[in-house]
Amino acid sequence: MPNQHLIEARGVTKVYQTKDGAVESLKPLDFSIREGEFISVVGPSGCGKSTLLKMVAGLLPVTAGTLELAGKPISGPQRDVGIVFQSSVLLAWRTVLDNILLQAEIRRMPKAEALAKARQLMSMAGLAGFEGKYPWQLSGGMQQRASICRALLHNPSVLLMDEPFGALDAMTRETMNLELQRIWSESKKTVLLITHSIPEAIFLSDRVMVMSERPGSIAAIYDIDLLRPRTLDMMGSPAFAVFAKKVRAHFYSQGTLDH
Question: According to the model, what pLDDT value does residue 251 have?
């Protein structure tokens, strides 16, 4: 079981300065994420979910409070994280393998080591045999698998995912949930997932963090004690329904629910 706190937030806030004055995006947040844990964050649009993820990545500074990764304050872009966005952001003129290796070029990783790691990740993600294909020759789900491989190439301890399957159709999204569960189980990474899908959050996570409307605050954190590995059939179980009802109640009470 994961135990060591890898990410810790204490009184973390975010305030944007605009021409009309200060705009509070996040109220003080307090949470910790253990090493190897899978955490999902759900909440209404505009509540600050993506802002939180960018602060963990070091792409946005915190306004107040402390945010630490592996015991060190997060200041500037972090080398020990990988990021997957809603769009796969693959370069159309590069093959799948070369898109994954772009991470190695940027980070100046040894070529032989990077190539071996890329092939290992592609095999793990079910992309073996597609090394020479171009993004336009892949389905949306396969493009996102390549994006996940690229994010893991430099072996980060944390994988940050911002609505990575939001643009996929429902059946492909379910398949990708199964794939992500398997990849997470094999890679042993700590994952922070931003999603609008309550079933997705429950299916994948050890804990689900529910955020309120903007300015975002933590409304609740639920431990998801469903057995692993999880199957799609579990989504129809009474235990799954109980968790979904608890999370969904936060949004129905506010009159907001994103799909």
Answer: 83
